[in-house]
Prior knowledge:
Number of domains: 1
Number of helices: 6
Helix content: over 70%
Order of helices and strands: HHHHHH
Oligomer: single chain
Number of strands: 0
Amino acid sequence: MAAVTTAVVAASAAATAYSADQARKASKDAARAQTQAGRESISYQEQQAERGLGLMQQLDPVAQRGLEASSFLADPAAQYEFLQENPIFQQALDEARSTTLARASAGGRLGAGDTKSELARNVLLSSLPLIDRQRQDVGNLLNVAQSGISGQANILQGLSAGVSPVITDIGAARAGGIMGANQATQQGIQNMFGIFGQMAGGGAFGKDLQGAFG
């Protein structure tokens, strides 16, 4: 009878050890699965961010043109140089001068003060629309540059906001796996103490074991 009891207790102990080992493995497997899922999430977010940055970078040449031309907005020397190299300005100025001189010649006022004033005004009248248009064009290019910078910053901020909690979850999963495995081990030990206590008859032996190994 004692042999049978010993065999039953031994079988219970083996089952308890196996159950604890399985619980420990399950805890570690769950932690590994969550960690892997977190890594895949981070990888996907990084790929999407890289794709978004790639699309934004296609505008870099346009933005660079705006930055290089930005001095035009408030630099008279840059505006003067722009007019000197602009064939449209030269054509408009020549046409305005020809019209003014033809009208003055017909009225016999080629040397009159008002003719000279009108010739001077022709420069402004021919240049200001072109300067204003160029300012608008440069402003539009700078808007592209600003949008590109803001867009890239938003992408990077979004990546950081998306990845940070995933990293935290991965850490929590690892910690949870370690704690779960330790708890399974401790519970298995406690169960084994209980079985040994039953085997000793009354539990005193089990308490002695727990005091010795706990």
